[in-house]
Description:
This is Glycosyltransferase family 2 protein. GO terms for molecular function: hexosyltransferase activity. The protein is an alpha/beta fold. About 40% of the residues lie in helices and about 20% in strands. Strands 1, 2, 3, 4, 5, 6, 7, 8 and 9 form a 9-stranded mixed β-sheet that branches. The longest helix is centred in the middle third of the chain and has 16 residues, at about 105-120. The model is unreliable at about 230-235 (pLDDT under 50).
Amino acid sequence: MMDNARVQILLSTWNGERWLPELLASLEKQTFQDWQLLVRDDGSTDQTLRILLKWQAAHPDKLAGLLLDGSHLGSKLSFSRLVEASTAPCLMFCDQDDVWFPEKVELQYTALRRLEGQYGEATPLLVHSDLVVVDEARAIQAVSFWDYRDFEVAQRKQAYLLNNVVTGCATAFNRAAAELAFPVPLYALEHDRWLALVCAWFGQIQALPHPLLLYRQHDENAIGAEPATVNGLSTRVDGWSQQAEVFLHRFGERLNAEDFKLVTAVAGLRYLHGWKRRQHILHHRLFKPGVLNNVALLLFA
């Protein structure tokens, strides 16, 4: 087994026998090979574990660990466990049903190292890329997930309180980000949304415009890719508000007075309803990037 791999790929599996062989084959083809796979199984009942053990036997130097506690935690807490168990300076989330392009690890690791050279290793840093949306049979549905969802990728830190453009399986982040953001709070929306929020406020986020993986969509997706529509822009205000409240609880002492007031305003949304909630959004200017997003925010809040 390799010691001190520079990259650990964090894979949470759950009944993934249909998809795992393709994913694992794509990892084997990476142009950058100083990586190890750290896996946590979330209570599979199919052949997932057999596939992983067979792969480990064929690649004994590539599996850093296989966490088998038998619990079904869901993706958010399962990935949190993986981050807590990780040791590498660069970490990448990995979904069992995707296919990585050969250059994914190399390009994201290089970009992350470049950011560390600019901002220092103690700064929480995150790199994320675009994705190609495909169906079960890998037929292309959209060549750009960002265009498909009408994402405005460049956004200020405030936008991450009510919005997210970072997809977990398309990210790389450093040790400083892992130590500050994890373990993920129980009431955070998702592990990737929480990580992006923390890095946006206390570090740096860089978007790479190149799609670096096939993002497979099927009936079993925990969270899928749906095109941006007015009806689909109901913004889960209560969830974002609750996450802001957790963010305030964990990091409130690190915020200046202006930022504390802003996060508090978002956290307060879940206690308001109807016109009072809309007044609160307008008064505190709690807006999302894009006109359509804000129309939806006010309509569905």
